[in-house]
Amino acid sequence: SAYANSRLWLTQPPLERDQTLEGIPHLELTLAIDAPTGILSVRLIDLGMAKRFGETAATVALNGLQLGFDYKTTDILEFKPTAKPTPSKLISLGHINLQNPKNAYEVQRITPGQPFHISLDLQPTHYHLPAGRQLALVIHGADMAQTIRPIKTTHYQIDLANSSITLPYR
Fold first, then answer.
1. If you ran DSSP here, which 8-state letter would residue 10 be given?
2. Which residues contact 13 (CB under 8 A, 6 or more apart)?
3. How many domains does the chain have?
């Protein structure tokens, strides 16, 4: 990938048995950056060749579901499996503005080069992982599709010994 040198890619060993993630994956990270501001993005990924559902739902029945109020209806949609197996699937993601980790009006001062701690909840999920699959955690800066990309390059150092992820296995 063109971005291989600008991300941290961590994997777990393949699962020994089926698992279901249900809830909110949570990260506790200790890191340092070389700037007073930064954006951190995180992705939790299912690794392993498999036929998965496609990204968009297809219409099963146009106006097939009666809503009961004012005689309105809605379409019945369902996700269909992809024609070919895929190597991975995004399970959950999250972003954090490092200088405003709690809210937009409360600034956390960042001293470049000095370690600091953040807590980050990823998007809630309900996801089944068959035995043999692997989980990957990808940590990177601004996400071009989801966040505003800064003009200046920021370098991140993650302290793995003082960082953790909590996965909500059911």
1. E
2. 134
3. 1
